[in-house]
Amino acid sequence: MRMSGGAAIARTLKECGVDFFFYVPGGMGPAFYKELEKDVNMVLCRNEKAACNMADGYSRMTNRPSVCYSQHGAAAAILASMLYEPMFAHSPVVALTGSVPTGVKDRWYYQECYEMPYFEPTCKFNVDVTDFKRIGEYVRLAVQVAVSGCPGPTHVNIHTDVSDLVGEVSEIYGDRTFFKAPPFRPRAEEERVAEAARLLASAERPVIVCGSGIHISGAYDELRKLAELLMIPVVTNYKGKGCFPEDHQLYVGVMGTYGMEFANEIVRESDVVFFLATRAEPHMTEERTAPEPGTSKIIHLDIDPMAIGRNYKADVALVGDAKLTLRDLIAALKTMIARPKPEQQRLQDIARAMREYERIVKPMMDSDAVPIKPQRIMREISNILKPTDVVVSDTGYMLCWTTRMLKLKGTGLTFLPCGGTLGSSFGLALGASFAAARDQRVINLTGDGGIAYNIGDLETAQRYKDQHAPLVVVVNNNSSLAQPRPKLEDWTKKEAPWIPHCDFSELDYARIAEAFGCYGIRVERPGELEDALRNALDSDKPTVVDVVTDKREYAPLGLDRRGKGEVYPSVPIY
User: Fold this and answer.
1) Which residues pair with 522 in a beta bridge?
2) Domain of 330: which CATH number?
3) Is the peptide bond before 371 cis (omega within 30 degrees of 0)?
4) What's the pLDDT tens digit per position in 41-79?
5) Is residue 108 included in any domain, yes or no?
6) What CATH number did the domain enclosing 89 receive?
7) Are residues 59 and 171 in the same domain?
8) Which of 214, 234, 482, 518 has its Cα between 20 and 30 A from that of 186?
């Protein structure tokens, strides 16, 4: 086939089922973009970080590959740094970069910088294309690797002369098998499944701990059937939040460093812990204290064998797709002559612990205090949510509140958390809104520190408002980076002192939003929150709800909370 390199890239992406291309232009010549716009939805972003976040949000929502693009040099380094987020979320994002012409490589060409090492830590596949004929082959391979096994980002570096060149290229094709993750669903071995069934059936205090793999596999029904079959309590980490009905009698809550302390305790006292589609990483298990290594029998199911035994020694290791392996496990349990009766006392104890948690947090969530408490924001958001709404949470301080206090109405991928990159949630939410149905609503919960990172893309949201689902950004505006603040506090003062290391000037983000052509609402009293949120969701524009909150309201987290009544002076454990 005779075509330009740019046409080969565009044709390959189309044949591989890629619908969205999030980019900041540069590097490639105009022919490259003209070829792409024929078959791909192109979203022009304000910076490379946002382009990556938007691709991540779209791919998380759909399990389909999407593309983010930047030119070479510093732009490529910025793009590479943000690929941490899709790596964390197991999101099939393909990063393309346009590099300097091959004829001037290694001559200190303008903005030249060897990009490839930047992408090694976060990408499953990383290739520098210098052979014009194979350009389509490498792009196709990047898509296939991104969606396969445990999904994750890949990178293809393409030199501008390779893109502009016209000549004979290898056959351009795609395989529908790889249009969506997971392309293949391997099953765990039959004898290992039987062993797991026996261990679960003999357990006195089992618990299921779920991660994001339930969302990727779509194993919602299987998880519920297994839990109900044996009446096993279900805990999630924050990446798994939403995979099990939050109003179900077996649902406990979110565990981990940012999770509920009573949920961690329930995991700690379990004799069998079933890690289901999660890597059981330290942050999700409160620094490997829930459970303590060696105190519980461990069943670990994950599609990635690298996850097994990394943090906990598995008594039964199951490598396979969550949906199909759970089906096999349920079938094995049903063939057993005798199955244990649920321990009613334990379920009653768990229900009692949950009621006690609700009793403690209710006054915080109902508070009429001014400045507004972030807990009150969580109550109001929870009240107005529909089952199909998608909530995107920023990391750190904001994630502490959303994991504990936000109550989802639907089961499925309705909660998208950031992995640790402050400010990435706005781009993530905007990308998710391109994937969402028009009758869905996307709500981004972020802080004033977070929104400032990519605030320029409010203009992007407005520019494409007719092409994405309704988007509302709720800013928890305490004029501070509140996560590190309590360690710097002067607790002898009755009012929060100014701390130069984390406190900002007071800004009105509603007015800033309006300057970008969006709708802005400023909220300073808790009684105004409900109407503000409803007006925002009914708006025909992307909307920012700027909520002025108490900078001294700190999230109750930290390893020292265990066994103590409070983590900081006057900050209770809950």
Assistant:
1) 546
2) 3.40.50.1220
3) yes
4) 999 999 999 999 999 999 999 999 999 999 999 999 999
5) yes
6) 3.40.50.970
7) yes
8) 234
Whole-angstrom CA distances from 531 to 377, 380, 409, 519 are 12, 10, 20, 14
Distance separating alpha carbons of residues 408 and 140, to the nearest angstrom = 37
Cis before residue 291, ω within 30 degrees of 0?
yes
Residue pair 290/269 in contact (Cβ under 8 Å)? The answer is no
Cα dihedral value 465, 466, 469, 475, nearest 10 = 10
Report whether 94 contacts 124 (CB < 8 A).
no
* CA distance linking residue 342 with residue 103, whole number of Å: 71
Average pLDDT over residues 508-516: 98
160 and 205, same domain (yes or no): no
Domain stops at, among 133, 151, 178: 178
Out of 288, 321, 348, a domain closes at: 348
pLDDT digits (tens, 9 = 90+) for 520-573: 999 999 999 999 999 999 999 999 999 999 999 998 876 666 666 777 777 777
Side-chain-facing half-sphere of 188: CA atoms under 13 Å: 32
Q: CA nearest 126: which of 136, 137, 135, 118? A: 118
Q: Say if 355 falls within a structural domain.
A: no
SS3 546: strand
The C-alpha atoms of residue 231 and residue 460 are separated, in whole angstroms, by 47
Is residue 276 a contact partner of residue 301, using CB atoms and an 8 Å limit? Answer: yes
| Residue 286 near residue 559 (C-beta atoms within 8 A) | yes
Counting residues of the chain whose pLDDT is more than 70, the rounded percentage is: 97
Look at residue 184 and tell me if it is in a domain. Answer: no
In terms of domains, do 497 and 527 share one? yes
Is the bond preceding 186 in cis, omega lying within 30 degrees of 0?
no
Q: Residues 341, 245: one domain?
A: yes
Distance, in Å, from the CA atom of 156 to the CA atom of 140, rounded to the nearest integer, reads 10
State how far the Cα of 556 lies from the Cα of 397, in Å rounded to an integer.
10
> Are 244 and 386 within one domain?
no
Q: Are residues 383 and 528 in the same domain?
A: yes
Query: What's residue 336's pLDDT?
Result: 85
Task: Give me the number of domains the chain comprises.
Answer: 3
Q: Worst-scoring range by mean pLDDT, 41-55, 151-165, 334-348, 457-471?
A: 334-348
3-state secondary structure of 520: strand
Q: According to the model, what pLDDT value does residue 487 have?
A: 87
Which is nearest to 129 in space by CA: 137, 119, 121? Answer: 137
Q: Report the candidate in 19, 42, 47, 61 with the shortest Cα–Cα distance to residue 428.
A: 61
pTM over 0.85: yes
339 and 411 share one domain: no
65 plus 87 within the same structural domain = yes
**How far is it, in rounded angstroms, from Cα 457 to Cα 399?**
22
